[in-house]
Design goal:
There is one protein chain. This protein has 165 residues and is of the alpha/beta class. It folds into two domains: 117 residues, Rossmann fold (3-Layer(aba) Sandwich), CATH 3.40.50; 38 residues. It has seven helices and eight strands. Strands 1, 2, 3, 4, 5 and 6 form a six-stranded mixed sheet that branches. Strands 7-8 form a two-stranded antiparallel ribbon. The protein starts with a strand and ends with a helix. The model has no long low-confidence stretch (mean pLDDT 92). This is Flavodoxin domain-containing protein.
Length: 165
């Protein structure tokens, strides 16, 4: 693999990309800047934040580069449906797909996105949180939170090291 390419909204995916770069020795590039450093078809590992079930930037990256693995960064607790749903929503068939918990930084979001997050929190709360994870997500949607941890990358680091030229 040549590089780590990422798309970040409020910085959590970027934090993971930089940590992954440090752990693997591969350079990390923001998707829009990668074109200045990489060539079409270069092998990459892609990270993108999740919005409405889509991995931001994945489709664009997959058209330009040879994506060898992908990580979706989101706030929910993953369950047995998370990866299959992300695969379906993003048309990812045979690639390794990982899920990383990121975070929410309301102060970095537009007023419209903050309002949308609050509406989602209200909807989940009215439905009655099914578990502690959903209760935590309600709080995170309202006040923010950061779940980025270096150890969350262990499986991805092992994958990249096992697939490096």
């Amino acid at each position: 693999m040549k590089a780590i390419v990422y798309e970040s909204n409020t910085g959590f995916t970027q934090k993971y990309a930089f940590m992954l770069s440090e752990k693997t020795g591969l350079p990390a590039y923001l998707l829009e800047n990668a074109k200045n450093e990489l060539h079409k078809g270069d092998e990459i590992f892609f990270l993108g934040w999740v919005c409405a079930g889509k991995i931001s930037g994945y489709a664009k990256a997959a058209k330009i580069y040879s994506v060898k693995g992908t990580a979706a960064v989101g706030i929910m607790f993953p369950d047995e449906t998370t990866i299959p749903q992300l695969r379906e929503n993003n048309k990812i068939k045979d690639l390794p797909l990982f899920f990383l918990r990121g975070g929410v930084a309301p102060e970095k979001l537009s007023a419209i996105k903050r309002k949308l997050l609050n509406m989602i929190a209200n909807t989940v709360e009215k439905a009655g949180p099914k578990n502690e994870g959903e209760r935590e997500v309600i709080d995170v949607l309202r006040i923010g939170g950061d779940f980025v941890r270096p150890e969350n990358l262990d499986e991805i680091v092992a994958f990249i090291r096992g697939n490096s030229n």
